[in-house]
Amino acid sequence: MTWEFGYRLRHTARTSLVLWAVLALALALVCAPAVRWLDAETDWSVFRYTPDGARAVLGSFVSSTLTFIVFVLSATLIVVQLASGQLTPRIIALVLTTPGVKVALSALTFTYAYTLAALGRVEDRVPHLHVSIAVFLNLVCIIVFFRFVQQLSNGLRPASVLQLVADRTERVIERVYPVRYDPEQPEVPPNEALPSSARVVEFSGRAGVLVAFGAASLLRLAREAGAAIELIPQVGDSVARGDPLFRISGATREIPYAALRGCVAVGTERTLEQDPRFGFRILVDIGNKALSPAINDPTTAVLVLDQLDNLLLHLGQHRLDEGQVRDRDGKLRVVYGTPDWPDFVALAVTEIRHYGQGSLQVTRRLRAMLEHLIAALPEERRPPLRAELALLGSSVGRSFQDEEDRKRAAVADYQGIGGSDS
User: What is the pLDDT of residues 369-385, one digit of tens each?
Assistant: First the structure.
């Protein structure tokens, strides 16, 4: 099994609604015979239904549970459509993989299959334990359904969507950059590169986006071949047939293309697993859309800046990846492109500063964010922030003709407009 195959299995297990529903259905088909056997052995009961009463109750539950399943799926699709239209289409995958949707769908599917199995066993003798468990399961599903509706209504709010994206991005930062930043050991750019004569391996698959790669698998291939391998595109880059994918230097034996290709995953769109920049991209896109003339919602842009402020502060406290993997002997084996701190700062600030340059609310909140990060982060993190603050000052001077507006725009305000000028 290649690294790519394992990655896709893990990704499917985390994101697929179909897989959860199938597992719930299979579990119900296993539990139903087990409960029937226990009922025959013990004759336990809670509700002493007659055969006709049991059929009526279970038949009603089967119909209502199927209706709940249809509502959950329909409501989820509506939320996806509304969220993608109002905010950004890049959050569709996040909405579909929220635990609330998977738990509700799994619980309803399990209960529907189990109740149907119990209904089919009601004959002259009522399996009381079987029927009683089915009744309790349906009562629990009613609560699960109400909980799902409440979460769905709360999830429609921009603040909830932004918090969801920020939480996912923060977890990715912790996973991709697990080491805390130490000012005594500043980050240094890679000082080793593969020679220009290295052999280039071209991509021959279907065009898409590099969503993840297995550094440990590439290290194993490079060590076995006595080579150094460079992954040319970065995670999140688009790759097409014929594009350079790897460069290999110093190999003592041939590395099969299939083995190299099995170390990278190419998909139709970016994911968050190894790409914290994608989380920033989603937030910035929501802010850009809110600042468009057609929508003109600077308050949502301020909410975006709240989350970007927290994420940049969290990211700045971690040591970023230097894009090099060495073996146990300290020899360079794998090289790959990776973003640095100025890349993240530019991604989080530049476009919102550009699209929000005529908004007092956005410029004041953006200034508060930059000043806060300059004060809170180590000195090595501050130059890109100071550069963005200087650009913000220039933008304010061009955007506001009145002196009083320029003075107001030069004030840092965490609420945009409404906080104290002091």
Answer: 999 999 999 999 999 99
Task: Return the SS3 of 124.
Answer: coil
- The string of pLDDT tens digits covering residues 166-200 is 999 999 999 999 999 888 877 766 555 676 678 89
In this model, does residue 253 exceed pLDDT 70? yes
CA dihedral (412, 414, 417, 422) in degrees, to 10, reads -50
List CB contacts of 79: < 8 A, sequence separation 6 or more: 95, 152, 155, 156
Please tell me whether residue 399 adopts helix, strand or coil conformation: helix
Query: Tokens representing 280?
Result: 């920033």
List, as one string, the DSSP characters of 24-84: HHHHHHHHHHHHHHHHHHH---SS---HHHHHHHHHHHHHHHHHHHHHHHHHHHHHHHHHH
pTM recorded for the entire structure = 0.87
For the chain, what is the total number of helices (H) and then of strands (E)?
Answer: 15, 8
CB contact at 8 A, 335 and 228: yes
What span, in angstroms and rounded, lies between the C-alpha atoms of 157 and 166? 14
CA distances to 39, 145, 161, 169, 348 from 363, in Å: 69, 43, 23, 24, 14
Q: Residue 192 has what pLDDT?
A: 57
Specify the pLDDT at position 189: 63
In the block, tokens 């360079």 appear at 332
Q: What is the pLDDT of residue 401?
A: 85
Spatial CB neighbours of 239, under 8 Å, sequence gap ≥ 6: 203, 207, 208, 209, 210, 233, 245, 266
Pairwise CA distance, residues 345 & 220, whole Å: 34
Residue 225 has pLDDT above 60, yes or no: yes
Q: Around Cβ 242, how many Cβ atoms within 10 Å?
A: 10
Give the C-alpha separation, 148 to 107, whole Å. Answer: 11
Q: Are 233 and 187 in contact (CB under 8 A)?
A: no
Give the pLDDT confidence score for residue 421 in this predicted structure.
Answer: 55
| CA–CA distances in Å: residue 352 to residues 131, 159, 166, 389, 419 | 59, 18, 17, 13, 20
Going by pLDDT thresholds of 50, 70 and 90, the confidence category of residue 1 is: confident
